[in-house]
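Q: Given only this backbone (326 positions), what sequence would you predict?
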């Protein structure tokens, strides 16, 4: 970790010191049982989840990290979670669809979502309001719900943005990110998307026929859109235009599936790496290989999509081409 922190610069060392002194993801933590979900569609926060959240936010406030560009802030926050357990299927709880808050275990998507949401919360001054837990929890829930669900509304299982290309598109439409894949020379992936509906046995919720039909309609809409991605052979050529904290989606070679994995861009010693929660590593980590090397070495991945988070309240990147330069 010393190597990683030094590579990110002095401000990150300060940030990780503040965060690490309050809560360390490297230490084992018990995973308490979540209390029942509330009628509002939000699963209640455990005290441990609040401790993690408030420690990260308070540490960022003390280090004045809200002044960093949001991408740099996301890189700092993401690095503070290195060592956190990889835990799949945390969103697929029994019963009706609910907003799940869980910092104890992360998968590749919930890692990206929570880091992004934490950055927005910090930028919005959450550190100054931590003494009012209920209000801050509500604010964070709204931020996370906006990222995770279509139109920011929980309306059953199909309302969750299951396909990450749609996640990017929806959050770009709501001016939370910009998809810069096309600007980086991306080409169109025209393959139809239908993995979920053609593998219903892999998804408990798709045993319901109406839910399955809803997913099929969503897949039809995604398939009709132009999805740009950068082929793996071109990643090294465009790497200098990717910034710390950019959202990386590794495109899939599996029939009917758009994205196989997600993470955040991270520059170390002038080389672009991936900060992510991989199944293989069993915890949040920084890739040993460069991003280009990693994608090329995995048979099931053939390129990347890249999205850049907006500063809160910023409607768009003025010029995505110029804005991509480090």
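A: Predicted residues:
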């Amino acid at each position: 970790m010393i190597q990683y922190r030094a590579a990110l610069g002095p401000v990150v060392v300060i940030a990780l010191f503040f965060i690490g002194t309050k809560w360390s993801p490297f230490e084992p933590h018990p995973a308490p049982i979540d209390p029942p979900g509330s009628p509002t569609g939000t699963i209640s926060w455990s005290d441990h989840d609040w401790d993690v959240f408030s420690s990260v936010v308070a540490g960022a406030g003390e280090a004045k990290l809200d002044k960093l560009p949001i991408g740099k802030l996301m890189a700092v926050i993401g690095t503070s979670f290195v060592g956190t357990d990889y835990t799949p299927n945390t969103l697929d709880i029994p019963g009706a669809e609910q907003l799940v808050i869980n910092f104890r275990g992360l998968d590749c998507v919930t890692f990206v979502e929570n880091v992004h949401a934490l950055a927005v919360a910090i930028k919005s001054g959450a550190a100054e309001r931590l003494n009012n837990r209920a209000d801050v929890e509500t604010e964070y829930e709204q931020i996370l719900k906006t990222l995770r669900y279509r139109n920011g509304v929980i309306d059953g299982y199909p309302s969750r943005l299951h396909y990450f290309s749609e996640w990017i598109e929806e959050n770009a439409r709501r001016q939370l990110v910009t998809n810069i894949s096309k600007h980086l020379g991306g080409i169109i992936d025209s393959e139809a998307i239908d993995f979920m509906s053609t593998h219903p046995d892999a998804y408990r919720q798709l045993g319901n026929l109406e839910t399955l039909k809803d997913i099929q309609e969503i897949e039809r809409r995604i398939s009709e859109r132009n999805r740009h991605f950068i082929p793996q052979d071109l990643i090294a050529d465009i790497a200098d235009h990717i910034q710390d904290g950019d959202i990386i989606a590794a495109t899939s070679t599996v029939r009917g599936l758009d994205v196989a994995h997600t993470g955040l861009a991270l520059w170390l010693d002038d080389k672009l790496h991936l900060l992510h929660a991989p199944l293989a590593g069993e915890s949040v980590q920084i890739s040993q290989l460069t991003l280009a090397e990693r994608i090329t070495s995995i048979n099931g991945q053939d390129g990347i999509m890249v999205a850049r988070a907006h500063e809160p309240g910023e409607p768009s990147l003025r010029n995505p081409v110029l804005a991509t330069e480090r």
